[in-house]
Amino acid sequence: MTKAAFLRPRSAPAGSMESFTGLLREWLPGQRWFAGKDRPVTDLHVLSMTELFPGCLHLLVHAGHGGVPSPGNTPWAGDCYQLLLGVREHPTPRLGRALIGRVQDGPLAGRTVYDALHDPRSAQLLLERLRYPGTTGPLHFECDAAQPGPGAGLVPRLLDAEQSNSSLVYGEEFILKVFRRIQPGVNPDLEVPGALSRQGCHRVPAPVAWLRTTHPFKATLGVLQPFLRDASDGWTLALDALAAGDDFTAQSYALGRATADVHLALASAFPVGGPGENGPTATAMTERLTAAAHSVPVLQPFVPGLKAAFAALALCDPGPAAQRIHGDLHLGQVLRAGRDWFVIDFEGEPSRPLSERRSAHSPLRDIAGMLRSFDYAARQRRPWRPEWARRCREAYCAGYAARSGWDPRKKHGLLRAYETDRAVYEVLYEARHRPDWLPVPMAAIERLAVRGD
Ligand SMILES: Nc1ncnc2c1ncn2[C@@H]1O[C@H](COP(=O)(O)OP(=O)(O)O)[C@@H](O)[C@H]1O
Ligand SMILES: O=P(O)(O)O[C@H]1O[C@H](CO)[C@@H](O[C@H]2O[C@H](CO)[C@@H](O)[C@H](O)[C@H]2O)[C@H](O)[C@H]1O
Fold first, then answer.
1. pLDDT at residue 328, as a whole number
2. Which family does it belong to (predicted)?
3. What pLDDT sits at residue 273?
């Protein structure tokens, strides 16, 4: 590996990065993982730029939205994104949709830049870097020596999934998740699976190696873990079952048990204890609703009805103790391999502040996430299949109760508030990432606000 240079964009001559940042500003909003599709990108700054290896730059960039702060992200208004860019002297037609463009001026003048994760050579070199712990500028490559690591020469492929980040699969043996939207601090998707594997919890693939930065702030940038090669995710399995007219209750029941297993392991890996308190929960949910309705005006007519669900928390018992949870549980976060369900992606809801994602919450939040997911799946079919979703939800709760010793269905008021809060989050998520999907959570909003069930 050649010694990498750490380029300091802030010392570059004024204006010299203009064409480069202009290209990135145009390219970013078209990316699936870009979280600001509901607002124009008004400015883009390079926060750090490191030559990872010849022909590949690592960047953290800040995308601003005209001074409108993004909830929970960095101390400044806007979002920070991680990019790995290939830089070539001569463009090749094969770059296809990886192509970002040709830089007109500044230090990269005349070069073609592209998303290096699409480039097998860069993807291979990235894995090589993770195989040998060390640092490159502010970037730190680390590994868990207790876990079997990847061998040499594993062939990479970029996953083309509905994702909030980007993932590379190596030789069908390992998967590297490259986080896209970066917040300061340890990412729970590294912290939690590591702690659960030390607990002996077999339902979560353990981190093998990871990448973090120390500039312009400390943050986790990527995690490598074993790839469950014959696994299917719960979303695909649910849609297949719906298409075939199959029942999904046995799978849902097993999924409920698996969720309870993971909650039990989380409670012992991160002992926090203490009963949940409904007052602060209701306040936080109401604040999130107000902020979401401000960003997504179609929510506004439903605000009074939704607030009622949160106000009703005052009449509920506090429910199960707060603990570390998954934080963004849905059918796309569970993988079925053999007869077992595995749980992945402990990042939490990406738009929440990291400190909030790493604190204790009611396990009902995860349960509500999965219940909403059965509804999402049922709405992918015409005509809509509410009965299918209802049976899955019942079976999931029954499976959870059998393993945990308490039945989520008996916490009706709490569960309704958590489902409402989750549906509000989904509206915000869809508006920002996949505007075409907005009608799915909006249908739930209407149901929860108007009928309250
Ligand atoms: N350990 C794994 N084994 C097999 N497939 C995986 C594994 N981790 C992730 N995947 C696949 O990658 C997809 C995206 O992973 P996920 O962690 O949910 O990323 P994101 O945060 O970008 O949504 C999953 O839906 C799943 O299909
Ligand atoms: O990318 P992540 O998996 O971290 O989670 C985000 O994206 C999800 C979509 O990919 C989103 O989930 C929503 O859509 C799913 C169907 O695609 C559905 O099963 C979920 O129930 C629904 O919430 C998730 O909210 C978001 O955080």
1. 96
2. Belongs to the aminoglycoside phosphotransferase family.
3. 66
Residue 57, judged by CB atoms within 10 A of its CB (0-12, 13-18, 19+), counts as buried
Phi, psi of 72 (to 5 degrees): 75, 5
- Tell me the CA end-to-end span of the chain in Å, nearest whole number: 59
Q: Is 196 helix (H, G, I), strand (E, B) or coil?
A: helix
Q: What is the DSSP string of 289-317?
A: HHHHHHHSGGGGGGHHHHHHHHHGGGGS-
Predicted pLDDT at 68: 53
The residue whose CA has the least distance to atom 22 of ligand 1 is 165
Chain centre distance of CA 128: 25
Give pLDDT tens digits for 395-431. Answer: 999 999 999 999 999 999 999 999 999 999 999 999 9
How many whole angstroms from 266 Cα to the centroid of ligand 1?
Answer: 20
Measured in Å, residue 344 CA sits from the centre of ligand 1 at 7
Phi, psi of 343 (to 5 degrees): -115, 135
Considering every ligand atom, which ligand is closest to the CA of 180?
Answer: 1
Average pLDDT value for the chain: 91
Helices and strands (DSSP H and E) totals, the chain = 12, 16
The answer for residues whose C-beta is within 8 angstroms of residue 366's C-beta and 6 or more apart is: 259, 263, 325, 326, 327, 329
- Cα separation, 221 vs 230, in Å, equals 27
What does the block give as tokens for 41?
């990108």
pLDDT of res. 158: 96
CA separation (Å) from 353 to 232, 254, 279, 326, 453? 30, 31, 20, 15, 29
Atom of ligand 2 nearest to the CA of 373: 21
| C-alpha of residue 65 to centroid of ligand 1, in Å | 29
For the chain, which residues score pLDDT lower than 50? Answer: 1-15, 71-76
Query: Given this model, what pLDDT does residue 336 score?
Result: 98
By most ligand atoms within 8 Å of CB, the mutation choice from 328, 357, 427 for ligand 2 is 328
For residue range 144-198, list pLDDT tens digits in order. 999 999 999 999 999 987 688 999 999 999 999 999 999 999 999 999 999 999 9
Q: Which atom of ligand 1 is closest in space to residue 229's alpha carbon?
A: 4
- Which ligand has the shortest distance to the CA of 440? 2
- What per-residue confidence (pLDDT) applies to 1? 32
Quote the tokens at residue 366: 């995860």
